[in-house]
Amino acid sequence: MTCSDSRGQVGHERRLQALGRQIERLDRCLAQLDEQGQRVVRWRLLSFALLFFGSAIALLASGPALFLLVGLTLMFLFIYWVWRHRKIESTARRLRIWRQLKQDQVARMTLDWDHIPPSEPLEERFEHPFGLDLDIVGERSLQRVMDTAITIEGSDQLRQWLLEFEPDLAALPTRQHLVRELICLPSLSTRLSLSALLATGQDGTGTPGRWSSAKLLDWLQLNPDTGLLRRALILLLILVPVNFVLLLAYLQEWLPPLFLITWFIYGVVTISQMRHVAPVFQDAAAIGESLRQLEAVFSCLEDRAFARYLYLRSLTKPLRKEGQSPTEMLSRTNRLLAAAGLRYNPFAALLINAIFPLDVLVAYRLEALKQALSEVLPEWLSMWHELEALGSLANFGYLYPDAMFAEINPAEVGVRPFA
Asked: Of the given ranges (4-13, 210-219, 298-307), which has the lowest mean pLDDT?
């Protein structure tokens, strides 16, 4: 499917003006949110003061009953204003990132090199017959104007297409169809970037750097001894109820303190697994941000059926395989990473693991999920990198509607390698 001819005739200046109006609306919304945020901060401080002084007066004047009633009522009031403030901050952060993406578009259309996001640096000994001479790559280049990728691999894919010596003529028609369909969906690329940046905690006040998915693939290659973790986990899960039964029996004076023996065994087994558990958590923490970005991006893509866009539907087919939902698998992984974050609170980690083997359980589940991801994630990432490169081409076509698609007749075109 392609856009109508009338849409393709929309001029460069009209789109530039439309972006300007969108930025102005975002500025007004952000100004209103800033005013609301300041008011909410004042109410939050007032509710905290009421909570402190009101509870104290109630305790001194009447006693514990009134203290609990007043304290709980004012606590809910304080929590409400905290929630309102966080909601306003979250909305403002989303709008700031959205505004930054629109400003990047304006910079691309006006060739404002100081504000166009930078390209990935070239290799120190980069050599190409025409790449630098024709400004296809470099500091002020065609690639920098085009490139909207948020991954290094997506940017590299675009550069590879632009610098091909012998383009794959058989693949070009499909690629052109995909770009045409993406031009009809100008907000898709922006929404994907917005979702990925929100997942990393970006606040829209600076230029975000690209991230590499290579570390995800490296993480998938690490294979600790899951068999040992599984055996230790089974033993620990058996010891947990035994510990509590023996403790209860001792408190009822039915048995001597046998729970000390089983708890000692439990502690020894748990400590012995730390050398296997710690590397799992360290590796997982290093790729946590990338997993959150992928979950946000794939969630946006899974929500779109692309029913009218056959080529996009075919490209994103790996995301719709039965039983292999990217959002579901990545969401489970991110929840486990959140649970693993408890171990960075030493007191909480010690308390929880003293009665339940949370660290061993989370490490084992992470490794099991990693094995499942290793079968599908490389294909997902390859699709995502290609979609980013295609999105960069489509974005250029949308910003510069006068740009034309090449008409290639393989029977008449001879492509000869450079000397």
From this structure: 4-13
What's the confidence (pLDDT) of residue 250? Answer: 85
HSE, side-chain direction, 13 A CA sphere, residue 126: 15
Q: Of the ranges 65-69, 205-209, 405-409, 411-415, which one carries the lowest mean pLDDT score?
A: 411-415
Query: To 10 degrees, the CA torsion angle through 223, 298, 86, 208?
Result: 80
Compute the mean pLDDT over every residue in the chain, rounded to the nearest whole number: 83
Q: Would you call 154 exposed, middle or buried from its count of C-beta atoms within 10 A (0-12, 13-18, 19+)?
A: buried
Query: What pLDDT is stored for residue 413 in this prediction?
Result: 53
| pLDDT tops 70 at residue 386 | yes
Lowest mean pLDDT: which of 27-41, 174-188, 238-252, 331-345? 331-345
Q: Which of 81-85, 237-241, 366-370, 390-394 has the lowest mean pLDDT?
A: 366-370
Tell me the pTM. 0.78
Half-sphere exposure of 48 (CA within 13 A, CB side): 8
| SS3 letters across the chain | CCCCHHHHCCCHHHHHHHHHHHHHHHHHHHHHHHHHHHHHHHHHHHHHHHHHHHHHHHHHHCCHHHHHHHHHHHHHHHHHHHHHHHHHHHHHHHHHHHHHHHHHHHHHHHCCCCCCCCCCCCCCCCCCCCCCCCCCCCCCCHHHHHCCCCEHHHHHHHHHHHCCCCCCCCCHHHHHHHHHHHHCCHHHHHHHHHHHHHHCCCCCCCCCCCECCHHHHHHHHCCCCHHHHHHHHHHHHHHHHHHHHHHHHHHCCCCCCCHHHHHHHHHHHHHHCHHHHHHHHHHHHHCHHHHHHHHHHHHHHHCCCCCCCHHHHHHCHHHHCCCCCHHHHHHHHHHHHHHHHHHHCHHHHHHHHHHCCHHHHHHHHHHHHHHHHCCCHHHHHHHHHHHHHHHHHHHHHHHCCCCCCCCCCCCCCCCCCCC
Distance, in Å, from the CA atom of 90 to the CA atom of 198, rounded to the nearest integer, reads 9
Is the pLDDT at 20 greater than 70? The verdict is yes
